[in-house]
Design brief:
Layout: H1 2-13, H2 36-46, H3 48-51, H4 78-84, H5 86-89, H6 95-110, H7 123-130, H8 138-153
Helix pairs in contact: 2-6, 4-7, 6-7
């Protein structure tokens, strides 16, 4: 907690702002993101170390989110999976902050696959999902869900 507070203070002291690529003025952030700057800061401090600034991840740390993450929303169990992956379930962020980051992340890294009827994550939903974290099964579940997403997207 102290580390996150110190990092937030450093960001503020350095007057760092969200890079243009993290906020596209042509597209409004989806419902569930009250403050895109705050969501980006939470992403920077809690997520990008493993998933990288552009969401591409790496085989050694964390899977890619770019062009992929919203695809989970198109298959049964996918939405729940996203709220239960280890990095989400064990995040030090509050449920409210984490739901905002999740909604921002979906929009920022995979808005092309974001369903038209997307319902934003809420704090109570994140609280329920993260109470049952995935562990070793997360990787296999990811592969199975993406396979289903591929099959459902096939013409």
């Amino acid at each position: 907690m102290r580390l996150a507070a110190a990092a937030a203070a450093l960001l503020a002291a350095a007057n760092l702002s969200m890079p243009a690529c993290a906020s596209d003025s042509a597209d409004a952030a989806p419902a569930g993101v009250d403050d895109a700057q705050r969501a980006w800061q939470h992403w920077t401090l809690n997520c990008q170390g493993c998933h990288r600034p552009d969401g591409t991840g790496s085989a050694a740390t964390a899977p890619s989110l770019a062009g992929t993450v919203a695809r989970f929303l198109s298959v049964p169990g996918g939405r729940e999976y996203l709220g239960r992956v280890p990095g989400v379930a064990t995040s030090p962020l509050s449920n409210a902050d984490l739901s905002e980051v999740m909604n921002w992340m979906l929009w920022r890294f995979d808005k092309e696959h974001l369903p038209a009827n997307f319902q934003p994550y809420t704090a109570p939903e994140i609280g329920r999902l993260r109470a049952a974290p995935l562990r070793l099964e997360a990787s296999q579940m990811r592969a199975e869900l993406l396979k289903k997403a591929d099959a459902s997207a096939a013409p």
